Amino acid sequence: MPTTKRESLIFTLIMCFFMVLTMSIYNIWLQTWEWGRSTLWKALLGLPIGYTVAFMLDWFLVAKIAKGVAFKYILKPEDHQLKVIFVVSLCMVAPMVILMSGYGSIQTSIQTWNWSQFFDFWMKSIPMNFILALPYQILIAGPIVRTLFQRIVKKGKNSKHKLSSAEKQAT
Asked: What is this structure's pTM?
């Protein structure tokens, strides 16, 4: 788990990538019922904007509120690490699903030039996205991202440590 602002940034960048790519593929599939290269291609085309929106929402709005709620009202210092992961994931996924479903509804309304069903589409997409996002985040993306994160951070700390040892020997 991240312990510094820099580590939180790295973790958030990786997690956003996994979540946005998967949820984009899922939502395109829900709209078209097509599965294949065209679905992946559409998801990849929308990834830069969707990723940027998700990162900005996560970093500047949702994370502070979600972690504040989790650690102030739900979690205790002695809670098991798995409970912490589950509660923080739930507190992060719920608002991100609401906000990113809104983003997806805006995107769909722009593409179809049909704003009359924007609110209806948004409200219908929230539960559809939540049923995938929470289990995916807890069972698949979370473990993968935590493993990648530990390797990146550990590698960075090891190389930093080796560098300072080399500097000490040189003096």
From this structure: 0.85
Nearest CA to 129 among 106, 109, 104, 101?
101
Question: What pLDDT is attached to residue 158?
Answer: 62
Q: What is the pLDDT of residue 157?
A: 67
Residues 70 and 91 sit within 8 Å (Cβ to Cβ):
yes
Instruction: Give the span between the Cα atoms of 83 and 85, in whole angstroms.
Output: 5
Region of 120 please: left (phi>0), alpha (psi -120 to 50) or beta.
Answer: alpha
- The pair of three-digit structure tokens given for residue 146, joined into one six-digit string: 């935590």
Ramachandran category for residue 21: left, alpha or beta (phi over 0 → left; psi -120 to 50 → alpha): alpha
Q: How far apart are CA 63 and CA 133, in angstroms?
A: 16
Please compute Rg for the chain using Cα positions.
19
- Phi, psi for 39 (deg, rounded to 5): -65, -45
